[in-house]
Design a protein that fits this description.
The chain has one domain: Pathogenesis-related Protein p14a (3-Layer(aba) Sandwich), CATH 3.40.33. About 35% of the residues lie in helices and about 30% in strands. It has a four-stranded mixed β-sheet with strand order 1-9-10-4. A two-stranded antiparallel ribbon has the order 2-3. Strands 5-6 form a two-stranded antiparallel ribbon. A hairpin with a 2-residue loop joins strand 2 and strand 3. Helix 2 crosses helix 5. The relative contact order is 0.20. The N terminus is likely disordered.
């Protein structure tokens, strides 16, 4: 019986370890998502942030980088990769920055600066800063008739610009949030 319990404990430990290793988002992404969620609460008290796979961030990197250098118009390149049917009905924000000496809270702060604006009534989710703001629709509604929902998703991907001793490591962060029709208040 003791041997069976030990074997079961070993199998369970292995299964848990494998589930951690094969998770969709990296540990770093999940940590940044947790920090970002706390910071977004200033603009939306119901905001949640989930770290997802790095597919969107990979797409953004592919739009921003060619041959280990930034393309001439990074914003246009990233917009072309992210403003697609798979992001239909979602706001998409992105940012990238050099990773040297960046802590998870610093990364989250750089991301929140892209998403949150401040006005006379306090902090708000700045949908106009989304790379695809003009194309986001909910049914026949768009523009100021819609707003970001409460569930944000974060995708991160590391990449390098330059080669050899001139190489600089960066991280691309993409955040999406499904749009919703503004409630009449």
């Amino acid at each position: 019986m003791k041997m069976a319990k030990k074997l079961l404990a070993l199998v369970l430990t292995g299964v848990m370890a494998m589930s951690m290793l094969t998770g969709c988002a990296s540990i770093s992404s999940r940590q940044v998502a947790d920090e970002l969620e706390g910071m977004l609460k200033a603009a939306n008290t119901k905001a949640t942030v989930k770290a997802v796979d790095d597919d969107l961030a990979k797409d953004a990197v592919n739009g921003a980088v060619k041959d280990h250098a930034f393309v001439t118009d990074v914003n246009a390149g990233v917009k072309a990769k992210l403003d697609t049917d798979k992001n239909n009905g979602k706001y998409v924000w992105y940012t990238y920055f050099a990773t040297k000496d960046q802590k998870k809270a610093d990364k989250a702060k750089k991301v929140v600066e892209k998403i949150v604006g401040t006005g006379t009534e306090g902090a708000y989710v700045n949908t106009a800063a989304a790379v695809n703001f003009t194309s986001v629709k909910v049914g026949d509604k768009s523009g100021t008739s819609i707003e970001a929902g409460d569930k944000f998703e974060l995708s991160m991907k590391e990449f390098t610009i330059g080669t050899g001793k001139d190489a600089v490591d960066y991280v691309m962060v993409v955040v999406t949030c499904k749009a919703q029709v503004k409630s009449a208040s």
